[in-house]
Each structure stands twice: as C-alpha cells, then as structure tokens.
Specification:
Blueprint: E1 4-7, H1 14-29, E2 35-39, H2 45-53, E3 60-61, E4 70-74, E5 90-96, E6 110-113, H3 119-129, H4 136-150, H5 160-173, H6 177-188, H7 196-199, E7 204-209, E8 212-221, H8 224-228, H9 231-245, E9 249-256, E10 261-267, H10 271-278, E11 286-289, H11 295-305
Parallel strand pairs: 1-2, 1-4, 2-3, 4-5, 5-6, 8-9
Antiparallel strand pairs: 7-8, 9-10, 10-11
Helix pairs in contact: 1-3, 1-4, 2-6, 3-4, 4-5, 4-6, 10-11
Bound molecules: magnesium ion (3 copies).
C-alpha cells in the first residue's frame, strides 16, 4: 500500500501528538508498514515535557499534503482544524472524540468516534480489541494525553472510561497519576518564552456556525491574574488575528488548573454571542466563567447555539 499520513489537529496538543504516534504503532503491529505519524505545527511545552519524560521523539512536521494522499486523522475531523489540502486527500480513518463538523469524504471510510474525554481512551480500546500489547512508553504517552484533555480527570468531558483507562495506563507506565499529572500540567503553564502572538495560537481552534467564524484559544495557568497582566498585548495580538483571519468572535480562555475556572478575553464584532451564551456582560473585554474548563463541552456548543 502507498504511504499513509497520520496526524492530529493544527496547533497540536498532547492528545493530537501522542495519538498520532500511538495509532502509527498500532497500525504497524497490525501489518500496515507504510504509516507515519506527523504533526501540524510545533509541540507545546506540556507535550515536550511528556515526550522528554518518556524519551520519545516528536513526529516530523507535515509540510505538504499531496493530492489524493492517504491519511488517517486523530483527535479532530473538522477540515478547518486539519491540514491544508485535506479536501483533496483520501481519508481512510478517523479516530476522534469531537462533534462531527465541517467534514466529508468521497469514499467510504473507517470512522470511530466516542464521546469520551480523550482520543487515547478510544485507542486503548482498539489495542485491547486487537490484542496488541501496550508497552510502558506508549502507556505513558497515552495517560499523559488523558490527563491533558481532562485536566487530571476533572473536566466535565471526563467519563468513567477515561478514569478506568487512565488508571490502567498509569500502572503500565509506572507513574503516579496525581503527582506526574500535576507536574505535566504545570509544565504547560510556563508561558514565559511566548510572545502574545504565539500565545494566542498555542491551542487555538476555529469553528464556523451559521456563517459566524468563532475562534477559541485556551491557555492553562496556575494564576489567571498572572496571564492577565499582559491583557493589552494579548488584545492587540487577538485583534490582529481577527483582522487577518476574518474572525467574528475570538475568545481567549485562560484556565486556572488549580481551581478549575476560566476567565476569557472576548473580542470581535460579535461579542454579543458570548454575552448571550453565558448570560452576562463582557466587562473590560473580560468575562469570568466559573467552573468552565472545557472548550469542547462548555464553550463551543453554547456559542454555536447563539449564532
Ligand atoms: Mg486536541
Ligand atoms: Mg483530544
Ligand atoms: Mg485540548
């Protein structure tokens, strides 16, 4: 068979990077030798911590997807979050845990989606189903992604399956879930070497809803105020991004990983959507969102409902 590219979404997070590696390994174990994991952009600090910790090399960056290339997508399906040229690719497989949006194919495909907290939870089940062993390194990558996506099993996206699988994987990896998890999440809150322009793109996703372009970026922190010290610079970077990318509403979620709350900076000509969605006024371009940590479950759906 021809070459197969495996990749997660743009502005990759730990789930997108590790799931690409983990699916590549599974495919190889099942005899599909031509698969290769790629990334769509630089790895963030949390992911770098994970790869260093388990001594795994990061995937190469996908520079150019040729027409009719064979691809497998993990941790996303929406074309707005995928590689340039995805419209003309041959999508063989999707393993994902997001809503299906802005996605279509010309040919039949293998599509596995579950409403769980992390792609790795689904991949774990696939390993078990195929009787393929998970070695400690891979288990380490997988449990890290679950910790990342569920904020250490505290996000409302976290299911019983995620908890069970995370505990099992932590055992195989030989790590203490709580201790390792906090250390890993903290590594991702070190934003010191990023410019404001970089920071708003580390973990940033776009969704289109009823013709409205919604961009939501998220950064984790141990102190919201620490991040908000640079509010003015962040707003300048966001406004520039809005202009260049034709965005109607841009929310930067600053998520407190200790208290599980977020505060967002909200800009654009459709700030009213956020005000309606969360039933409160944006004040000084900011809105406090108690108990909100999940963009996927607590932010995108309510914004989309109000477009
Ligand atoms: Mg992701
Ligand atoms: Mg994910
Ligand atoms: Mg995420």
């Amino acid at each position: 068979m021809e070459k197969v590219y495996i990749f997660g979404h743009k502005n990759p997070d730990t789930d997108s990077i590790t799931s690409s590696i983990v699916l590549e390994n599974l495919e190889r174990k099942l005899g599909n030798e031509n698969v290769k994991a790629y990334k769509l952009g630089n790895v963030n600090k949390e992911t770098k911590f994970v790869l260093d910790y388990f001594n795994v090399q990061e995937p190469e960056t996908l520079e150019n997807l040729e027409e009719n290339a064979n691809v497998m997508l993990v941790d996303h399906n929406s074309f707005t979050q995928s590689s340039d040229g995805i419209e003309n690719a041959n999508i063989l497989k999707v393993i994902d845990h997001h809503c299906i949006s802005g996605f279509e194919t010309k040919l039949p495909l293998y599509y596995l989606a579950e409403p769980v907290g992390c792609t790795e939870t689904i991949l774990y089940k696939l390993y078990r189903l195929n009787n393929v062993e998970i070695d400690p390194k891979l288990a380490g990558l997988m449990v890290s992604a679950i910790i990342s996506d569920t904020l250490l099993l505290k996000s409302p996206t976290c299911t019983e399956d995620d908890v069970k699988v995370a505990k099992e994987l932590a055992k195989i990896a030989g790590i203490d879930l709580e201790g390792y998890g906090m250390e890993m999440l903290k590594a991702g809150t070190d934003l010191s070497d990023f410019t404001a322009e970089e920071l708003i793109e580390i973990d940033s996703k776009k969704i289109e809803s009823n013709g409205v372009n919604i961009q939501v970026a998220q950064v984790n922190t141990a102190s919201i105020e620490e991040v908000m010290k640079d509010q003015e610079e962040l707003e300048n970077a966001m406004n520039k991004f809005i202009e260049e990318n034709n965005i109607d509403i841009f929310m930067l979620l600053v998520t407190d990983i200790i208290n599980s709350d977020s505060e967002a900076i909200v800009l654009g000509n459709r700030v009213d959507i956020a005000e309606k969605a969360f039933d409160r006024k944006v004040n000084n371009n900011r809105i406090f969102l108690e108990g909100v940590v999940s963009r996927k479950k607590q932010v995108f759906p309510v914004l989309m409902e109000n477009t």
